[in-house]
Specification:
This protein is of the alpha+beta class. The longest helix is centred in the middle third of the chain and has 12 residues. The N terminus is likely disordered.
Length: 591
Amino acid sequence: MLRLLAGIIALAVPVVAATGGTATAAAPPAAGSGCVGCHGNASTMKELGYPHFTVTPQEVLAQTGMPADCHLCHGGSPDAVVKDKAHAGMGRLVAVRKKGLTGETVERKHPLSLGSNPMERIKLMTDKAGRAAPDQSVSIILWQDKRIDTLSQDFGRMEKSCGACHARQFAEFTRSTMARNGKQSAYRTWTDRKRGPHNCGAWFGDNHEAIAANTAAPFDRATNALNQRQCNTCHVGCLDCHYDPQPADPADPKKGMHGFRRTPRPESCYGGGRGQTCHAGPEERRRGAGYFGGVYANPEGAAPDVHLQAKVTCLDCHESSRNGNGLTHAMVKRQATCDRCHGTIVASHGTSVHRTLTCEACHVRNVGGYQGTYWGPGILGGTGTPFFKYKEYYGIMDDPILIRDQKGRWIPVKPYPMAVMNVKGAGLKPGLHWRWPATLPDLERTGDAYGYVGLVGGLPENNKALLWIQMDKVSHKYGQPRPCDSCHGTADGAQRREVSWEFTDAGALPFSGSHTVVADARGLAIHNISTPERIETTAGTAVSSFAPWFYLKNAWTIPGDFSLPAIGDRTRYERLRDNRDQARNAGIIHR
């Protein structure tokens, strides 16, 4: 069993260890068991050609903190002494191939590489002329609690492994938003009237018939399943949060390939070193102002959130079951509060002129990531699909646009143009929409909005295009406040942002471009989307597939008043703008 652990780094126990509950006591791996008989003997494992799978019961116990026998986590038969029989039914690491996005288990001639790049520190190695080299055919690796066919969670295996000791935590996890994919699975089609179209796409899953019926391009079940597999690689299991393999350190026996953590680290929330997955994508790319920044950011190198620098972790701000507030396992409160650490400041802000602004409205700047995303025909995993996500329009908006949320507070958003091609019909109403009603409890609600533009023609192919403006609430990368003029620099309260970006996705050779975001009393618009360069397509891809803006120009406009309150006394404003102490004393900003 240990063989699986060391080699597959796929213990199902992690979920258990990280839960914080009382696990059922189990005897440490027996020294005479079949697992330890091989895997606990370095000379035997070297002779078999797998020295990297050598591990002793003492090492496993020190690293996991759990007294579970090997087979309780990995499966297999601990009484068997023949390899094939002993390994039968074991959970194994899943390698997702770039071609076909198919999952498979592989023989591990070399150990996983644990590097220093936090985003991609864990790599599957293959044998090249007798030497270890990164397997370039692999898109991502998944732990043993994922299904090899769909790449989604394997609840059956989780229940047998983690759930065997952590029954309550497992049961609670299965009902959690993360386990149920509770948010993204609500976007059943591109034209869902309740939730609208979304940057992450439709929930292809079991919605093939509805999506295909409204698609003016061939879209069969096999392609639908392919698109869904791409989504499923982000779906969380026990090990994604609690399994934390680290290079062995003689000075710290807790470190090693069997490392587990009761409380997940922020790095686990960001994919655990297996790529820009889990919350790394939504925070750094879709919202554009993530907690880590650095190598996770697009463009790379963005400053991190000040809370990272202060060693304040995700779960220090976002309440979970560990806070004793009635939340069940894996339920994490999206809405964090600042008053736990900044009570005096929050109280002062609540009596200031700016009391209707959320903290992040002033303290989040320079939002990067996607500055445009378009779903059109392309090649996914080596197969043609009408829904390839052309997302690598990476750039930086100097300061977010502020809009009023459903409760009347001013919140920061990053508006950018979006479209999905080959849509037959839509019954959505143009204008601003909130994805989740304010009447929902915090655990079920987000502050995200979108602006529906319309279903338009005018493309040389791929008609029609469903257009909207993505407006997710920006909540991280706190830092110094934005300058006053970023909101009040115009007399009429209009907001204007010039955004430059680089396109580096499939479909064309890289090119640069820009657009202008305007939010004023007439509406919210994205104008002048353009590139000074010639677009050179690749592999016969149509420009309309990844750049419908080339033909639709200034189509991304929605009605409404998106202006900020105008300043009546500009002379007083300019005086207080340049003297923060006077502004505080006057109750304009918090103390």
